[in-house]
Amino acid sequence: METTSRVGAQASAAEGGQSSPFARRTVDGYLQASFPWYGLDEAFTGPRWLMQVGTSADGAVEHGSTGHGDEPSVRNEGTEDKERFAVVVTIAANPVRRSPDGTGLLEATSVSSAAWLAGEGLLSFTWPGQMDHTLRDDWLKQQTETAWVLADDLTGPAWSTLSLPVDGVPTPFHYRESEFGWVLAGSTQAGVHVGAYGRGMSAYGLGFAAIKNIGAYTA
């Protein structure tokens, strides 16, 4: 994963991505995307809800997330043992390409990009117990750096592989667990990368599918 991908992802998160998990957006941003959104397939019958989209400097939608199950709270609020949720991250698959004004290159995206966005997303709903509020920023910065390093080494020992259905087709995913939940990432035949994270729901029983009607997800 290119270093510029990380910078772009961080900028997108700051502008409207997953670093502010409790802020929500309407369906409008999702409808502006030039790529298909992914969520859990029809086997999941629980609540579905919108999160946020991330945009590039020129306003183009580059990635976003959809939630499934319980809307998560910060981990140490005492509800983490009861929460069951999975968040699916969709990111457009883009090679390195020139910016519209021809002055530079736009960052490439990869499976590692999806893995990092998913890892960062899980952290945004995580706050270890007994930690002072003033220390969380330092903890979050350290854990975000760790998530970046792990996402950049998908063949390393921190990751295993599993096969999950995507649009009905068995698809390989990179998968890892931590004390905070699980993260996975893979690619689809539709030209997007898919990441996911969650707690309380087993990743091994999930399936993914292109969302036919994003409006069915509540804002």
TrEMBL record:
Residues 68-79 have a biased composition (Basic and acidic residues). Residues 8-20 have a biased composition (Low complexity). Residues 1-22, 59-79 are annotated as: Disordered. This is Uncharacterized protein. It comes from Streptomyces colonosanans. The lineage of its organism: Bacteria, Bacillati, Actinomycetota, Actinomycetes, Kitasatosporales.
